Amino acid sequence: FLLFSFAEVNVGGVVWRERDIENIQANESPKPKASKAATNDKKESPVRGGNPLAMKHRGTPVFAISGVPEHVRLELAKKIEQLKGELASDPNRYDPACTHILCGKPNRGEKMLSGIAAGKWLLSTKYLDDSFEAGYFLDEECYEWGNPKAVGKLTALASAGDLETAAAAYTWRTRIANDVGKQDGAFTGFRVLLVVPKKDQFVRLLQSGGGYVLDVDPPFIHSERAMAATHCFVDRKAKLSSEDHRALAEAGIAVLSIMYLNAYLTSEQLPDPNSFQLPI
């Protein structure tokens, strides 16, 4: 059965502010495909043409909204509809079909981190207010958190954590857009074993960034599928036996703290995996 919870939970350095769905089997499946609205290059928002102020995204934009009061979300949704954009299907959880995420300020909820991992545009809600006033979707860069072109346009972020998340969002979007090796997302090339509670949350996060989660549970020592992994992420509350740990290490699989995922997505420079390596 499904058990829904809206409480904030800090797991692996990630504050899961979005709705959790527990007791779901973590499926070994590829990155979810975006909807036709997110990939249709022929259907475009009004006033694009050669207008240098118009939206850079090609096709119909699909917006997710994060971290705003309900009445603000409803107002933003109306403006999106009037500008001929679309709203993400699930208001409480990351939708892989979305192309842009609107927020009052960056946060480290599941929806936001999944968007960063996928290289989505992370924009201030001011973007939609100004676009509505202009009558068409504007160029995103002047409203993108972490983008140097947005300096002076957006409200200054006060906390170091917010600044770090904003910078990471911009860095990952541009990296994923330009780096062939990361074209599917921040976790392209990752084949992952998870030894964590609330496993389904991390499955969604990794899949959003192009990672592949192996549906294998401990013990790993005699599993050929487990030995095909590139990483094994372990939560401090979970238990990985010394036999499994040694077998994974001998197979060249990085056995790291789950905290590595948070640092990997939100640090200005890619973190050194050795700093997160767990002792046998």
User: What's the tally of helices?
Assistant: 8
- Which sheet architecture does the biggest sheet show? 4 strands, parallel
Task: Work out the count of structural domains.
Answer: 2
Write down the overall geometry: elongated
CATH architectural arrangement of the largest domain: 3-Layer(aba) Sandwich
Mean pLDDT: 85
As a percent range, the share of helical residues equals 25-40%
CATH topology of the largest domain: Rossmann fold
Give the terminus-to-terminus CA distance. 37 Å
| pLDDT < 50 runs, ≥5 residues | 1-31, 35-44
The ordered H/E elements are EEEEHEHEEHEHHEHEEHEH
- SS-derived structural category: alpha/beta
Give the name of the CATH superfamily of the largest domain.
Answer: BRCT domain
Radius of gyration: 20 Å
Strand order of the largest sheet: 6-5-7-8
